[in-house]
Amino acid sequence: MEPVTVLVVDDHPLVRRGLSTLLGLEDWVGRVVEAGSVREGALAGAAEGVDVAVVDLGLPDGSGVDLVTRLRRAPGCPVLVLTMTRDEQAVRACLAAGATGYVLKDSPPDVVVRAARTVLDGGLVLGPEVAPAALGTHRPAALPAPLDRLSPGDLRLLTLLAQGRTNGQLARELGVAEKTVRNRVAILLGVLGVADRVQAALLARDRGLLGPA
Questions:
Q1: Which Gene3D superfamilies does this one have (predicted)?
Q2: Which of 85, 104, 135 lies at the terminal end of a domain, its last residue?
Q3: 181 shares a domain with 87
């Protein structure tokens, strides 16, 4: 793949520069753009051809959730939230706004880098500290609508998708081609009546497939 442009939004210059340096070492990163506020992040997202954004929640001129919403209006700009906030409501608000990743700042550097790459590749990433509260891990005895319309294979696909698997990972685990995965995911989203993977994951959680909300 061609090297991509990453947007890093954090109001602490040392954190911002450190993360930019870390990401800049990756061969898949061609350029890192920095911003320190919601306004700067939104302007950069609109003008810099950003491929993926890493956003903090605590910004001086507004909430990172608002910035997630604004960045998601730009097609092809997935957002990873990198913050110290563990609050479940914050996690759910970010996912509802369109973020496809949420990890904590005290995560190891390689975890943060992998999370950014997974989000770029279309996966869903939740750090282990926030995933249980946000999605859960248990399955109910009886499935409510619309999950009751899914085949066992589709239920497995939905579960793996909600756990953050990329198309490549899904293809390997299911033993099919990536094109087949893309087609199956598109059909699954249509059956569920949702627009994207995040909405599918939230629906699975809210209907109890992955555990209590």
A1: 3.40.50.2300
A2: 135
A3: no
Residues 156 and 147: their CA atoms lie apart, in Å, by: 11
Number of domains observed in the structure of the chain: 2
For residue 94, the domain's CATH number is: 3.40.50.2300
Q: Which two tokens stand for residue 175?
A: 């033993």
Instruction: Answer whether 57's CB lies under 8 Å from 64's CB.
Output: yes
Angle, vertex CA 143, rays to CA 141 and CA 149, nearest 5: 140
User: Could you read off the pLDDT of 99-153 as tens digits, one per residue?
Assistant: 888 999 999 999 999 999 988 988 888 887 776 656 554 444 455 677 777 777 7
Residue 80: closest CA among 99, 107, 64: 99
Q: Which helix (H) or strand (E) holds 213?
A: none
Residue with tokens 């949702």: 194
Give the Cα separation of 87 and 130 in Å (integer): 8
Rounded CA gap, 164 and 193, in Å? 19
**Coil vs helix vs strand at 24:** helix
